[in-house]
Amino acid sequence: MLLPALLLLAALSLFPFFYIIWMSFNEVSLIGGVNFEWVGLENWTNLVTDPDVRSSWIVSGIYFVSTVGLEMILGIGIALLVHETVWGKNLALSMLLMPMFVAPVIVGLLGRFLVDSTYGLYAWFLDKTGLITWEILGSKGSALLAVILMDVWEWTPLIVLIVLAGLSSMPPPVLEAAKVDGANYVQRLRHIVGPLISGVVVVALLVRSMDAIRYYDIIAITTNGGPADATKVIPIRLYETAFRFQELGYAAAIGLSMLAFSILVANLFVRILKQQGLAR
Amino acid sequence: MNGTGKKIVLYALLLLVLLWTVVPLLWMVLSSFKNADDLVSRTPKLFFAPTFDNYIGLFTGGNALGGYIVNSILAAGISTIIAVALGCIAGYGLARSHFRGKDHVSFWIISTRMAPIAAVILPLYAVFRTLDLLNTTSGLVVAYLTFNLPFAIWIMNAFFADLPPALEEAAMVDGATRFGAFWRIALPLTAPGIVTTAILCLVFSWNDYAFAQSFSGPGSQTLPIAASQLITQTGINWGQLMAIGTIVVLPMIAVGLAVRRYLVKGLTLGAVTGE
Amino acid sequence: MSGAGLAGASLLGLAGCGGESNQSSSSGGMWKQYKGMTLNFISENTAPTSAIAANLKPFKDLTGIDVKISQLELGSLVQKVSLDVSSGDPTIHVIYADPYQVMAPFSQALADLNDFNEDDSLPSVPKGLGDFIPTQLAAAGRFNDPDILYALPYDTPTMIWMYRKDLFDKYGDQMSQDLGFDPTPSEKITWAQYYDIAKWFNDNTDEVEYGNGQQAKQYDSLMCDFSNILWAYGGDYFDNGVQVGKIGTDDPGPARLDSDKAIEAAEFYKKLNEISHPGSTSWDWTALDEAFRAGELAMVPNWHEFAAGVEASKFGGKVGYERLPTGPARSASMWGGTGLGINGELEDDEQRAAWLFLVWATSPETQLSGLKSKVGGGTPTRQSVYDLPEVKKAQHPPSDMPNILTYPAVSKAWEPENIGLRPKIEEWNKCDTVIFTEVSKMLAGDESPEEAMKAAKEGFDRANGV
Fold first, then answer.
1. What pLDDT score was predicted for residue C215?
2. Which residues of A195-216 are buried (b: 16+ CB within 10 A; e: fewer)?
3. In terms of CA atoms, which chain A residue is nearest residue C281?
4. Could you give the CA distance from residue C150 to residue C98 in angstroms, rounded to a whole number?
5. Rounded Cα gap, residues B238 and B31, in angstroms
6. How much is the ipTM here?
7. Cis peptide bond prior to A227, omega within 30° of 0
8. pLDDT of B234 strictly over 80
9. Arithmetic mean of pLDDT, C414-439
10. Cα–Cα distance for residue pair B169/B171, rounded to 1 Å
């Protein structure tokens, strides 16, 4: 039963995978068809010594931790909030889930529309209240913060969805018993709810992490890596290397390093998952 | 804190979260009805003379939106159906089989979804060119399968793994085949999970920009491409962009609302812990 | 679209170079020899293409060929072209060959158009190649080799000085008194004086937020904006900057960004940025235009084709257009035009069919109807179009072809000593990224002007293998 799907998947994924590995050891030119020129480890040594790639990894690191971190914290918090709500729960939930249905390209453009000092609603509001009077996408710190928040706006609902499902499947008797025993909210949260949804939480983490490192639509359409490289995350540098500089061999190496990162991170989470599973 | 006090805090927080979520969308929908001057006015306008020009502009002229909408629906829809169908079968197979290296296979499956997009575009382009899939909707369907299929297999595997095998085993003792047990017993029980998977696959495909940009041509371009085409050398057509945003969001919201109940129940992720 | 019908008729009278004028039936045959084919045309989202896309009927009537047009943002266009070339079995016939991002890196994949122009069995360029403005023909059409022609000039956006004439009329006298010189915009004003004017607006009136705005987003736009000043101060990217910009080269040699003049230019650019609208560092040319149209700025250096939008805004009729100010060396206006090229990897027949489209798309009639089109604004590349009486009339308001209001300024800007041409080299994409990244860092305060220019030079040299 497994076979047809696996065969299809293998066909779709193994060829690109080996192709990329091959590309990373070559200099690739495109005129008249794809041509390879063996360069051995040159792309890989460049990868390790290139200061631009290093700085992109740092920005990516900050971006990754901030977006995933915020999305997890807010997502869990909002899920708990919705879970406790009785009146209007369905309505609230429907509204809360909307952002994730908007294409990242459109989220980026909408973000630009809201934050540009000429006509942006948020820019106007922040300026009038004196909170932020400078150009948000024009200075390094606020630009990075802005794109982080756009990503958080779009993807927190995904976390909310997953965690809420876990909360909804908690057996009520356990909670009742805890309440009867006199545990307050915080205690219940830590000792009962926490362990019960920990598996769910790790899954949400995994699902979001996989994409957080490779999605770049929002940044590409708002700041495209600027100002002064402040938002130049590694997938943007990858795209630039591949299609602006036509250095496909080097791009392949960058891509593989990104894949390695994802696999490492995912492995980490799955291991935690296993521990949780065993603990239960 | 007493009961009412807690309730007030609760609803206040909820309101805050709702505002954060909904204000940008409301602004987008509102702006889609503004004319060019109102859109870029220094002081954001809440009250203005509405116009349908943006919507009219989208559906007439050289790049009528209708075609893009159809392409998006076809590419996302067909890819989702295939992914979910194969994903259910494969997920079940994986859940019910026990062989050495099963965990590795499972991990490999989901790792294919971690591919760095810009790097895989070249090899995929080569494949599509050879198979004549470029500039076609079928090509996009296949492209979307590269991330929908692993996702579907992985999640459905988890759902099935959480179903106690007893029911199916009973059926098989009574003479049902493995597939029969799957079809008649396991599948209906995971209906909410299937719906959830389908929705998520649909969302990821519907929102894709990178693959559509690389593999589609004039006959198969999707809505996110239409949005980016409003960025011209001499300006961004914000009005039409807001209108596209509204159009893009609406069907997804409708779909999400329709299956909301399944969505929440579906992710009974005591299951998706990948045992 | 009255010109369109004429286009077919007049083009039918063409023959290969040197041939007699044929009967319309046989020349009609020349145009119709590829009837039934379909051509793929990939272009940036630009006015002439929008105008053509809105009305392909004349071409279809003339040739019986269908054209499928893809309009993409420039980065995506480059990506698609590179993918198409890579397949070894290309599908794109007509390419919007941006001289710096497409023509230079992919020149080997483009066909030599002279082959078609001199072929008797194909129509040749109406009015000959000499009708194209000379600097543009070289800049848009040639790379590294002065004889090969890779593209026919298609559009020609050029940077000029746009300013609120109404404000200058109102405050002109006061400014004269305060500043000690006549601030009326023209290329006689120096950049130093421009700075003073901008500062005057900041300090003395609330009618605009700021005197000046820049397209200083960490992007192509920053390079364009900075280059004007680099050249005005006598600096340049490479030795032989004029040649490197006009024809291009595959071996530019070491970069000269660390010269004293270049550093001086960088210092001025930073100084100017400090008193310009703070949004500048997040604005590309589009956002700058939006700010100008919203009344935030008194003046901007921006692309002349934005005039169409400006005239349609609430400031229509109140805006003036002049060449950019002069620096110690000269007044330079960045040119950003592009030509249409043919994919040289295609079968002969397909290339010849594509040539038909090229001739039609750059013909005087098509360029004129593009100017008049509702969807366009257009920026013709042919002298004959600008010499037409109705176009000449449009140079003065009220004008139904608002981009022509800028003609007095841009026509001078296209002269060889005034035009600003960035280097046409294979590694330009990398160098472009280096310069706009370093200048962006300079503006953000991460680097001093001297450090930024030195770092840029090093980046350039690394990219060019020097």
1. 95
2. ebbbbbbbbbbbbbbbbbbbbb
3. A138
4. 11
5. 8
6. 0.85
7. yes
8. no
9. 93
10. 5
